[in-house]
C-alpha cells in the first residue's frame, strides 16, 4: 500500500529538493517520469519508492505529526522488499541500501545500522564491477554516468560511517580506477549541488587515504606524526582552493556548505586530538593540536547554532551528527580547564551543542544516545546544567 498521493508527492518533493541534490543517489528526471506516467509497462520499483518516502518523511519530520510512524512503516516495507529481492536490479538495491541509512541509527539497532547498510551497498557495487572504469564498456551512456555518480556517493558514505563508527572502510580506493566525479555525471538531476558534490568527494578521498595511512597497526609514532603532517598539507590545500560558494559563511546559512565544513572540522579534531597516553602534552606539536581542536570545535558549534536557528537540522545526515559528537566531546574536555575563561567559553558551547543534539534526537537514535551520554556528564555539576 502507498500513502495518499498528496502525501507521497510532498515526501518525494522533499527528498529531491533537500537530499538528492547533494547526495545524488537517484536520477530525478527518470524517477519522476515513471512516477507521473504510472505506466504499467514501465513501473516504478516499489522498493526504491518506499526508501525515498522514508527519507522524505525524515527531512519533513518537524512538519509531520506522525513522522515516526510514517518512517517506521516505510522502512519496514522497503526492508521487506529489499530482503525478499522482490524486484530485480542490483543498481536499484544499491540505491535503496544507501537511502536506508537515514533510518534509526542507534548502538543497539545493529540491523538498521548505517555501517551495515553501507556494507550491503559496497558489496553490491563491487559485485557489479562499479569500482572499475566503465568508459570503454558496452554500458549505455546513462548507465556509465550513473555508475560513476553512485560510486562516489558510496565512497563518501563508506568513509563517513567508518569514521563515525570507528570501523574499517569497505572500499579500498587503490583497487578502483573510476574517473573523477564532475558535473557531467550529474545529468538528470536538476538543481544538483555540483560544488558540494565535487568538493565533498575530494574531501572524503583525503580522509579515506589519511585514515588508512595513519591507522596502520604497525606504524611508529614518528611515522604517524609524518603522516599527520602530510594530511594537514592536503587539508590546507583543500580549504585554500575551495570555490567561493563552498567557503563557510555563518551569516548566510546553507545546508550543503555547512555539511562540507562539518565533515572537514570533524576530521581535523579526530586527526589532532590528544591520545590518552600523550607523553609530552606541553610540546609545541601538542599545543598546536589543542589549538586546532579548539578552533574546529568552535566552528562546528557555530555551524550547528546557525542551522538550528534556521530550522535546518533535519536536513543533516548521520555524518554531521558525528561531527557534533566529536565537537561536544572536545568541548566537554575543555570544561575541566584550570583556566576559568576557557572553562566559561566551553560551557556556553557545551550547552549550545546539547540543544542541537536534543533537536536531532527526535529523529536520530544516534543523536539521542549522544545526548544521554553528555547529560550524564552534567549530573552532579549544577553549573553545567543545560537550560532548555
UniProtKB/TrEMBL annotation:
InterPro entries: Amide_Lactam_Regulators, XnlR_reg_dom. Keywords: DNA-binding, Nucleus, Transcription, Transcription regulation, Zinc. One of its GO terms (molecular function) is zinc ion binding. Pfam families: Fungal_trans. One of its GO terms (biological process) is DNA-templated transcription. Residues 114-187 form the Xylanolytic transcriptional activator regulatory domain. Transmembrane segments: none annotated. It comes from the Eukaryota. This is Xylanolytic transcriptional activator regulatory domain-containing protein. It comes from Cylindrodendrum hubeiense. The lineage of its organism: Eukaryota, Fungi, Dikarya, Ascomycota, Pezizomycotina.
Amino acid at each position: 500500500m502507498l500513502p495518499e498521493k498528496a502525501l507521497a508527492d510532498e515526501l518525494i518533493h522533499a527528498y529531491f529538493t533537500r537530499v538528492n541534490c547533494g547526495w545524488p543517489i537517484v536520477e530525478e528526471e527518470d524517477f519522476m517520469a515513471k512516477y507521473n506516467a504510472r505506466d504499467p509497462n514501465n513501473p516504478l520499483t516499489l522498493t526504491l519508492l518506499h526508501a525515498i518516502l522514508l527519507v522524505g518523511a525524515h527531512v519533513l519530520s518537524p512538519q509531520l505529526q506522525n513522522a515516526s510512524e510514517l518512517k517506521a512503516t516505510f522502512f519496514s516495507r522497503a526492508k521487506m522488499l529489499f530482503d525478499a529481492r522482490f524486484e530485480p536490479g542490483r543498481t536499484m538495491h544499491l540505491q535503496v541500501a544507501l537511502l536506508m541509512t537515514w533510518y534509526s541509527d542507534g548502538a543497539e539497532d545493529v540491523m538498521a545500522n548505517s555501517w551495515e547498510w553501507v556494507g550491503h551497498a559496497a558489496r553490491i557495487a563491487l559485485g557489479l564491477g562499479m569500482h572499475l572504469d566503465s568508459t570503454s564498456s558496452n554500458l549505455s551512456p546513462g548507465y556509465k554516468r550513473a555508475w560513476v555518480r553512485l560510486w562516489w556517493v558510496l565512497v563518501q558514505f563508506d568513509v563517513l560511517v567508518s569514521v563515525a563508527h570507528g570501523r574499517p572502510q569497505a572500499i579500498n580506493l587503490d583497487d578502483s580506477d573510476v574517473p573523477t566525479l564532475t558535473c557531467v555525471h550529474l545529468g538528470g538531476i536538476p538543481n544538483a549541488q555540483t560544488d558540494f558534490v565535487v568538493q565533498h568527494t575530494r574531501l572524503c578521498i583525503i580522509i579515506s587515504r589519511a585514515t588508512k595511512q595513519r591507522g596502520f597497526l604497525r606504524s611508529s609514532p614518528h611515522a604517524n606524526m609524518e603522516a599527520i603532517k602530510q594530511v594537514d598539507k592536503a587539508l590546507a590545500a583543500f580549504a585554500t582552493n575551495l570555490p567561493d560558494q563552498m567557503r563557510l559563511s555563518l551569516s548566510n546559512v546553507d545546508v550543503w556548505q555547512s555539511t562540507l565544513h562539518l565533515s572537514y572540522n570533524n576530521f581535523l579534531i579526530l586527526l589532532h586530538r590528544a591520545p590518552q597516553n600523550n607523553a609530552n602534552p606541553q610540546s609545541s606539536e601538542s599545543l598546536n593540536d589543542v589549538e586546532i581542536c579548539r578552533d574546529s570545535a568552535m566552528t562546528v558549534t557555530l555551524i550547528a547554532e546557525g542551522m538550528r536557528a534556521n530550522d535546518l537540522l533535519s536536513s543533516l545526515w548521520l555524518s554531521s551528527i558525528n561531527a557534533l559528537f566529536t565537537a561536544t566531546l572536545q568541548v566537554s574536555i575543555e570544561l575541566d580547564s584550570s583556566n576559568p575563561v576557557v572553562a566559561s567559553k566551553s560551557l556556553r558551547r557545551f550547552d549550545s551543542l546539547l540543544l542541537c543534539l536534543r533537536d536531532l534526537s527526535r529523529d536520530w537514535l544516534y543523536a539521542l544516545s549522544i545526548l544521554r551520554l553528555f547529560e550524564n556528564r552534567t549530573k552532579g555539576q549544577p553549573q553545567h546544567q543545560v537550560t532548555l
